[in-house]
Amino acid sequence: MIRRESALLIVIDIQGNLFQAMPDKENLLVNTVKMIKGAKVFNLPILATEQMPEKLGPTIPPVRRELNGVEPIGKESFSCWQNNHFKKKLEALGRRDAIIIGIESHVCVYQTAIDLIENDHCVYIVTDAVSSRTGENCNTGLAAMKSAGAHLTSTEMILFELLRNAGDAQFKEIHKIVK
């Protein structure tokens, strides 16, 4: 099971034109916001990325507001791990449990997950907070990540796994987020 002390949240490419192409983007946005709020409750480090923001646009405003001071790392590589700035920030944190949300499941999320797994990270993919332009591509990406060793989870499942106990001081805050 994931532990707060070793976990971080990675928010991949929830930006402008790319986000607009996602099916069920309202649900994606709701769960993205829940995950960011939950990460803040647990004081988890958060890293965010933008795929070629000059072409695809910046992180969408509701997510940017929730990130509140987390500056997205611009990248050209599909895998976040292939970006030196991202890799240095991640390694400096010393956290090995990566909770991943974002788009697209079969491209940037997938390639990042595989690179992290190959570099001794434990990867948790929040299935209701990732998406692709088609359901088939999203499902293919999820299946490939699971086959490679990633743990598939959901927003509520991972937040309650991090919480572990209804007597925890953060219970009320997490309960408000998932309601």
Query: Would you tell me which CATH topology applies?
Result: Rossmann fold
Instruction: State the CATH architecture.
Output: 3-Layer(aba) Sandwich
**Structurally, how many domains make up the residues?**
1
Total of DSSP H or I helical runs spanning 4+ residues: 9
The largest pleated sheet is described as:
6 strands, parallel
Q: State the separation between the terminal residues, measured CA to CA.
A: 23 Å
Query: How much strand content do the residues show?
Result: 15-25%
Stretches where pLDDT is under 50 for at least 5 consecutive residues are: none
What is the count of β-strands? Answer: 6
Q: Output the radius of gyration.
A: 15 Å
Main sheet: strand order: 3-2-1-4-5-6
Averaged pLDDT = 96
Strand/helix succession: EHHEHHEHEHEHEHH
The portion of residues assigned to helices is 40-55%
CATH superfamily: Isochorismatase-like
Classify the oligomer.
Answer: single chain
The CATH C-level class name: Alpha Beta
- Decide which structural class fits the backbone: alpha/beta
Shape type: globular
